[in-house]
């Protein structure tokens, strides 16, 4: 595989599927939810990655009132926060985050504060100082709001940011924000990010002159 090199001023990092492998929990929680609502679990799993829970519910149960989705989402978040069995780092995530120490980067996740804190801890990963969570935005990915807020918090123009994402919703959000996207893992490859890494062992970041970051993928 030929290496790709991107130049940026800041990196915006998704959590689930990008830094943390939480697929085991997500599968358990959402397949139980699918059974409760008489939906096909395989079809549900195609929708839920990357989005806030209530946004996934709005896609899957379009006739259900928003208020009901929000209440259901609160219950789901409590279940997810209590279940860390099988939550591990994506290979290379700890070393990748360590390499970003002192460099401009932010976590941009559809999880809320409680869930993101628990999952990063379960995976043995440090939380970035700048974090955009579900509480920070009015619209879930694939809306670009989270990534645009991350860029604004870091004081960097959207075009100077590189996003790391695994899901279709997240990749679409990064693109809509006018950012370049590094896809992480097999789920990302089918959504046409700018480049794809099998995992974070294939990513290296170096700081170069003028406050620039050079991102090597592959």
Q: Number of helix segments?
A: 9
In total, the number of strands is 11
Helix content: 25-40%
Task: Describe the strand arrangement of the main beta sheet, using strand numbers.
Answer: 6-5-2-7-8-9
Weakly predicted, low-confidence segments: none
Mean pLDDT: 96
Share of residues in strands: 15-25%
What is the CA-CA span between the terminal residues?
7 Å
Radius of gyration: 17 Å
Q: Largest sheet at a glance? A: 6 strands, parallel
Broad structural category? alpha/beta
Shape: globular
Order of helices and strands: EEEHHHHEHEHEHEHEHEEE
How would you describe this structure to a colleague?
The protein has 218 residues and is α/β, with parallel strands linked by helices. The chain contains 9 helices and 11 strands. Strand 7 (161-165), helix 8 and strand 8 form a beta-alpha-beta unit. Helix 1 (23-36) crosses helix 2, helix 3 (53-60) packs across helix 4 and helix 4 runs parallel beside helix 6.
Give a nutshell description of this structure.
The protein is an alpha/beta fold.
Defining traits:
three-stranded antiparallel β-sheet; alpha/beta; six-stranded parallel β-sheet; 218 residues
Topology readout:
Layout: E1 4-8, E2 10-13, E3 20-21, H1 23-36, H2 41-48, H3 53-60, H4 66-82, E4 88-89, H5 93-99, E5 105-108, H6 113-122, E6 131-132, H7 145-154, E7 161-165, H8 168-176, E8 180-184, H9 186-189, E9 195-197, E10 203-208, E11 212-217
Parallel strand pairs: 2-5, 2-7, 5-6, 7-8, 8-9
Antiparallel strand pairs: 1-11, 3-4, 10-11
